[in-house]
Design brief:
single chain; about 400 residues; mainly beta; Lipocalin; Methylamine Dehydrogenase, Chain H; 3 domains; five-stranded mixed β-sheet; four-stranded antiparallel β-sheet; 33 strands; disordered N terminus; disordered C terminus
Length: about 400
């Protein structure tokens, strides 16, 4: 389907869905919720920041930092890709690709993969940034490429999943799903669970695909298209997919947040929640952001609701990501919000800049990495408050005796 027609259709759908609030008393209700004054009880410190490239506001691109453990890699819409030391923020290399980027980077096996707006997947050497190959995959991708076992997985917005050889970019297999008449702009990034690629599609389906062969191991309908109009039947699986152990968590627009068994695709539990950002998870809870901006935490075991927070209604919050004892969320004004993972209360807030944070942050151990739409990459950590000792330590007691 022609991408331009799909975008026109989506814009029209968005106007129709919001028309009830354009006139009359409903207009005030559509304003973003104002932030209340907050005294931080979680001490957040910025470690460093680096400029990746130019602005990507309003483009809804899939640019989000990635790591190989030692370095952080990031890409900008105007074609820059950088590698910086994860601890110090010192730049290792920077390359200008002279092409508009729409997704990435994906990192693995000594390589970095990014995708361009015009349908290319580009592979770079992780140590030097030197381009290894560039392959046309037939369409724009908004999903981070996945690299594993000598394969680069790329998913395009026309509902195609492709496996490319890490060595030379040649296609190993391709999988295609039907494309609905109307879809949201966005894409879920494939994840690897065991030997299967888990991928979501605009027709509401979640598939487990064998990494080596491309065979479908199981197919689950996450979000069933219902209703008479194309708008009512939107069922895109565009958000983040999470996995913990052998459990998979995913969600569809106007559908359900669902837990599935990784080996079979069997649904373990489901909750009726509509979200475009998908889900994240830790060992205890599953987190999501409803389409109106309300944050929700659910039990990982059975989906029972743990808490809700509506502080960020209509502020375009990102997916909540577990970090330390909190979950962190970015918003359209460049704020980072930290909420207790236990009860959802606000514990800290800080501002990265004046531009939006559209993609959810990357968490690596005790460090948080965030990329804003103006092309700024920054690292944050939690500073532990050291209270005065209430009792002598062992060495003090030994000295006294």
């Amino acid at each position: 389907m022609n991408n331009a027609l799909r975008m026109i259709g989506l814009l029209a759908a968005m106007l129709l869905s919001s028309s009830c609030g354009i006139f009359g008393d409903e207009e005030e209700k559509l304003e973003p919720k104002e932030l209340l004054k907050l005294t931080n009880t979680l001490n957040i410190k910025k470690l460093w920041s680096s400029k990746v490239g130019g602005s990507a506001e309003f483009l809804l691109v899939g640019l989000r930092p990635a790591t190989d453990g030692s370095n952080i890699y990031a890409a900008s819409q105007d074609g820059n890709v950088i590698a910086v030391d994860a601890v110090s923020g010192k730049q290792r290399w920077k390359i200008k690709l002279e092409i508009e980027l729409s997704a990435g980077p994906g990192v693995g096996e000594g390589a970095v993969a990014v995708a361009s707006k015009n349908g290319n997947v580009i592979l770079l050497d992780a140590k030097t940034g030197v381009e290894t190959w560039r392959v046309f995959v037939g369409g724009e991708t908004l999903a981070q490429p996945l690299i594993s076992e000598g394969v680069v997985i790329a998913q395009t917005i026309d509902n195609r999943l492709r496996a490319l050889s890490l060595f030379d970019g040649k296609q190993k297999w391709e999988l295609e799903q039907s494309v609905p008449a109307l879809t949201m702009r966005g894409a879920s990034s494939p994840v690897l669970v065991g030997g299967n690629v888990i991928a979501g599609f605009d027709n509401g389906r979640l598939l487990a695909v064998d990494l080596e062969s491309g065979d479908i191991e199981w197919d689950s309908m996450l979000s069933m298209p219902t209703g008479r109009s194309d708008l009512d039947r939107l069922a895109d699986v565009d958000g983040s997919i999470a996995s913990v152990g052998q459990d998979i968590y995913a969600a569809g627009y106007q559908g359900r947040v669902t837990s599935l068994a990784a080996e079979s695709g069997q649904v373990l539990w489901a909750r009726e929640i509509s979200t475009q950002v998908g889900v994240s998870a830790d060992w205890n809870s599953v987190y999501t952001t409803r389409e109106d901006g309300e944050l929700v935490a659910m039990s990982r075991n059975n989906g029972a609701e743990i808490w809700r927070n509506d502080d960020l209604l209509r502020r375009d919050p990102t997916l909540p990501m577990p970090f330390h004892t909190a979950v962190v969320v970015g918003d359209f004004e460049g704020y980072l919000h930290f909420f207790s993972s236990i009860d959802g209360t606000a514990v800290a807030r800080m501002r990265l800049g004046r531009k939006a944070i559209s993609n959810y942050p990357l968490v690596v151990a005790n460090t948080l990495y965030v990329q804003s739409d103006d092309g700024t990459l920054a690292a944050f950590t939690v500073v532990q408050d050291r209270s005065k000792r209430s009792a002598p330590d062992v060495s003090d007691e030994a000295d006294e005796t």
